[in-house]
Design goal:
The complex is a heterodimer of chains A (about 120) and B (about 220).
Chain A lengths: L2 H18 L4 E10 L6 H12 L8 E7 L2 E4 L5 E2 L10 H4 L11 E5 L3 E9 L1
Parallel strand pairs in A: 1-2
Antiparallel strand pairs in A: 1-6, 3-4, 3-5
Helix pairs in contact in A: 1-2
Chain B lengths: L3 E3 L4 E9 H18 L3 E7 L5 H12 L5 E7 L4 H7 L4 E6 L8 H10 L7 E5 L16 E7 L6 H4 L1 H6 L2 E5 L4 H4 L3 H11 L5 E3 L8 H7 L5
Parallel strand pairs in B: 3-6, 3-7, 4-5, 4-6, 7-8, 8-9
Antiparallel strand pairs in B: 1-2
Classes of the chains: A alpha+beta (about 120), B alpha/beta (about 220).
């Protein structure tokens, strides 16, 4: 549900950046979203396209790069990625537990970000 | 830091490094510094819709009997119902209406504390919008996070929302008087909570009757 507020924030940043750089038109936007961020990428891109309408960024391409997670387990010491390929009903639970020992006591080092990385403008 | 370079006759690449969630985390840290400076213990109360967040806060206020030394920021989409219920307990209350938003964020809290008279306040409760998903991603700067769930939500609430329960410092299971009619196994709910977050207190309450409230006050470190 908070995809809308994050998307609005992204759009505000894109339009501000375009303006301060004399962009007449925004061609593309590149985002990096961590695979552990509680964000649905499809919803985020949908809202960005919607909110771009009627602005210099209308029709801009929105590219989203997924940032792989990196965690450290406080129970077994595992360091590394997460196994997020499971598609069953426990997939959501897997997001928060160690892939090796299933402990929930993990520290997330990477994979929770939502970064506006790059925009392309026509001057 | 921006680097602008031309990639063609007209198109310019503008590189940015803007983590949009980090902005909220930064504001939350600022809020925390303000609470620390004013010596106000702040508690973010999160939980699902109808789990009893307001009732629990009311019961705690009644038990503490600290009047205006306690303040409450009541978050809600559009109404002031919760704020009015809490005001009846003598606390200072400010309503924050989020409109369409499903959570409070650190910026809204900063605006609320700018408008509140906090002199003499020792404890501040922030009642978040009823939601077990979004508030977890938006820290507000509170010292402690209390998550409220209730037996009427059925047997799977905790296991289905591990993220928010992992963030909790205290977990409350409310409406235990309804355990029997709901046919819910509270021991299983406690095991679910302990698996996700083993080191935090899990307290069973009936906020309407004041049952379990002293334990919650204790767990939050609100002894006065």
């Amino acid at each position: 549900m908070h995809e809308f507020s994050i998307s609005s924030e992204i759009v505000r940043n894109v339009l501000d950046t375009a303006k301060t750089n004399d962009g007449k038109k925004v061609v593309s936007v590149q985002l990096e979203i961590g695979e552990l961020a509680l964000l649905n990428v499809e919803q985020v891109t949908f809202w960005i396209h919607e909110l771009f309408k009627g602005s210099v960024a209308e029709g801009a391409k929105v590219k989203v790069k997924t940032v792989k997670a990196r965690i450290q387990c406080e129970s077994c010491g595992y360091k590394g990625g997460m196994n997020l390929d499971r598609q069953d009903s426990f997939r959501h639970v897997i997001l928060y537990s160690c892939p090796k020992c299933s402990s929930f006591q993990i520290k997330v080092e990477k994979g929770r970000e939502c970064t506006l990385r790059r925009i392309q403008v026509v001057r | 830091m921006k680097i602008i370079r031309s990639t063609g006759p007209e198109i310019f690449d503008i590189e940015l490094e803007k983590d949009l969630l980090a902005k909220n985390r930064g504001l939350a840290k600022e809020n925390r510094r303000r609470f620390d400076r004013s010596n106000i213990l702040t508690i973010d109360v999160m939980g699902s819709i109808g789990s009893g967040k307001t009732s629990l806060i009311k019961a705690i206020l009644k038990r503490l009997g600290m009047g205006e030394k306690v303040a409450v920021i009541a978050g809600d989409l559009t109404t002031t119902i919760d704020a009015e219920r809490i005001e009846a307990e003598g606390a200072r209350v400010i309503q924050v209406n989020t409109g369409k938003e499903c959570h409070l964020d650190a910026h809204l809290i900063r605006r609320a504390i700018d408008r509140m008279k906090l002199n003499g306040v020792k404890i501040l409760f922030i009642e978040n919008v009823g939601n077990l998903i979004c508030p977890g991603e938006f820290p507000l700067g509170a010292h402690k996070r209390l998550v409220v769930t209730s037996v009427t939500e059925g047997p799977y609430t905790i296991v289905k929302h591990p993220y928010i329960f992992r963030e909790a410092d205290v977990i409350v299971l409310n409406k235990i008087d309804l355990t029997k009619p709901m046919k819910v196994n509270t021991a299983q709910l406690e095991r679910d909570a302990q698996q996700i977050n083993p080191h935090v207190p899990f307290i069973k309450t009936n906020a309407a009757k004041g049952i379990g409230i002293p334990e919650v006050i204790d767990a939050l470190g609100l002894k006065t």
